[in-house]
Amino acid sequence: MPxxxxxxxxxxxxxxxxxxxxxxxxxxQGKLAHTDRVGIAAxxxxxxxGVIDLAVTKDQGCRYVxxxxxxxxxxxxxxxxxxxxxxxxxxGPPSFAESGMEGIVAV
Length: 107
Known about the structure:
Layout: E1 4-7, E2 10-15, E3 20-26, E4 32-34, E5 40-42, E6 51-56, E7 62-67, E8 72-78, E9 84-91
Antiparallel strand pairs: 1-2, 2-3, 3-4, 3-5, 6-7, 7-8, 8-9
């Protein structure tokens, strides 16, 4: 089951197979809709492979994406419309193949 994290009217779901994050928002009827035409909120990159977990800060302003294959954590600022702006990539944690980086929390 892919990991997910909520942030206000937005919900983000990690797609481990293609290392992307799909963005959703709640519409006026309370149903989920993609944040854009294709719903992809974070395309894969060479340094960010194996999306395994996500977390959103309490103030709902930032989202962190844990990438187990590459052993990185990407930080994004969440825009008013749910769009992400990548602000950092943390390197150094072990990749999943080495010791199993799994689980993330944001405060």
